[in-house]
Specification:
single chain, 184 residues, mainly alpha, 10 helices
């Protein structure tokens, strides 16, 4: 069974009301993967990145974001590597302690780093987002998608301008492949 949970782009927008403004493209009633790819062919791979971040389930979206950043980033600082590893640790073993660890690390990190947004994406995947207090607050349902989108877009923005368009398209194609893979 593939990972796609929506029959159309319109269904995704109905499930996530913030998606339409984040993607900034009108939905249609076609298959989500066709819509995703059409955003690229219409010259809007940045919009396709946003749509893909919503299309994938949270865990797969974080994994996809990590793959994109690993592909487009040539070298990582120790802090970047630590943040990326925290997000990947949660992807591999999506347990509460790993989610909280990624969230705590993200809060202490530079918000200009794509890896910070991937740690936030893992940390905002569920559970309680209030750290260190007894009150409980679940994350809004769109927060993981928004954080993954921020990570990928900010990562690509670090590339030379001539490489950005292709990098976005490559990321979108990777996300489409993940979405089409059958779950095991």
């Amino acid at each position: 069974m593939p990972l796609i949970r929506f029959a159309s782009a319109r269904d995704l927008y109905e499930a996530f009301p913030t998606a339409q403004s984040d993607v900034d493209a009108e939905p249609d009633d076609g298959a989500p993967i066709a819509y995703l790819r059409s955003l690229c062919t219409r010259g809007s791979p940045d919009k396709a990145v946003a749509f893909c971040a919503y299309l994938l389930p949270r865990r797969e979206a974080v994994w996809w974001g990590c793959r994109c950043i690993r592909t487009i980033t040539q070298a990582f600082s120790a802090e970047d590597a630590h943040l990326l590893q925290a997000a990947e640790d949660w992807v591999h073993v999506p347990e509460e302690d790993r989610r909280v660890s990624a969230l705590e690390l993200a809060h202490r990190s530079n918000p200009n780093w794509p890896s910070t947004w991937l740690a936030f994406a893992a940390g905002w995947s569920g559970g309680n987002i209030l750290l260190g207090i007894e009150a409980k607050s679940p994350p809004p349902p769109q927060q993981t998608a928004r954080a993954v989108r921020a990570a990928v877009i900010s990562g690509v923005a670090r590339l030379p301008p001539a490489q950005r368009h292709k990098a976005l398209i490559d990321c979108v194609e990777d996300g489409a492949r993940i979405a089409e893979e059958p779950r095991s």
